[in-house]
TrEMBL record:
It holds the Pfam family Aldo_ket_red. This is NADP-dependent oxidoreductase domain-containing protein. InterPro entries: AKR, Aldo/ket_reductase_CS, NAD(P)_OxRdtase_dom_sf, NADP_OxRdtase_dom. One of its GO terms (molecular function) is oxidoreductase activity. Residues 1-117 form the NADP-dependent oxidoreductase domain.
């Protein structure tokens, strides 16, 4: 990857799914430090030690599955993969109470949590329902 930067084919290097030990090994041995680390990160999986390490070393944290992958089983069913039991974070009672208090959706509360922590978050959208959701996501900081 460093050769790709040297050749001008990419500006920065990003890595994914590394734990603290793995990213530390890269930081200590690489000539060009990774610009970002993409990991699963949301209200139920806060990865505090990993996030602290990245912030201390100037590595941007990119949160994937910020809503807890509610579409995971539907997606994998298309490929005949057995479903997994996943926690239903989008309907968590505490998140719902916070959302009602601030007149926001549960998803907006979950995304706002990541924004307030200054993580980039990486969610998905596809159709018109999703476009409406996207607009609601953009209003994460508004009070109305
Ligand atoms: N690096 C890695 O190893 C890795 C691993 C996993 C995922 N990722 C990447 O991270 C990205 C996000 O992953 P993810 O799909 O697990 O993320 P996610 O954002 O937690 O889940 C996306 C699901 O949430 C639903 N959704 C979106 N907005 C919603 C809302 N406002 N209310 C209710 N449901 C909502 C979507 O449904 P609809 O489709 O109906 O909108 C979709 O099924 C993906 O592009 C994926 O490729 C990377």
């Amino acid at each position: 990857m460093e050769e790709q930067v040297d050749a001008g084919r990419t500006k920065t290097i990003g890595v994914s799914n590394f734990n603290v030990g793995q990213i530390d090994r890269i930081v200590k041995s690489a000539r060009i430090k990774p610009a970002c680390l993409q990991v699963e990160l949301h209200v139920y999986l806060q990865q505090r030690d990993l996030v602290k390490y990245c912030q201390q070393n100037g590595i941007v944290v990119v949160a994937y599955s910020p809503l807890g992958s509610p579409g995971y089983n539907k997606f994998t069913a298309n490929f005949g993969i057995a479903s997994k039991k996943l926690p239903d974070m989008l309907h968590d009672a505490v998140i719902k109470a916070i959302a009602e208090k601030h007149k926001k959706s549960n998803a907006q509360v979950m995304l706002r949590y990541l924004l307030q922590k200054k993580y980039c978050r990486y969610t998905k959208k596809r159709n018109s329902v999703q476009t409406q959701r996207k607009h609601r996501r953009i209003r994460l900081y508004s009070r109305c």
